[in-house]
# Entry
Amino acid sequence: VARRSAEQQLHTYLREHYRAPAKAKATRPATVAFHVEEDGSMHHLRLVKDPGHGVGKAALAAVRDLAVHGERWRPAFREGLPVRFEVFLHLPVA
# Structure
């Protein structure tokens, strides 16, 4: 239940903060990737797929804003210890 709640919070945040440019003609989503560190912080944000027309730039800006203002993530665990993991977010043209 906690995981679903966190996913819902993430989707709500992105719905409120991510807006593709009105003139965007792209139909494919932008993909942003980042690392979640052992302490739950987000690092190494990068745009993996950019459909063009400013969509990728807007997606990266929304996720970067989440990294600066958002809550920390729960890290992954291996053998009982927190470890870094990579997240890929696909943000559709909305």
Notes: The first strand starts at residue 30 and ends at 36. The radius of gyration is 14 Å. Residues 24 and 53 are 5 Å apart (CA to CA).
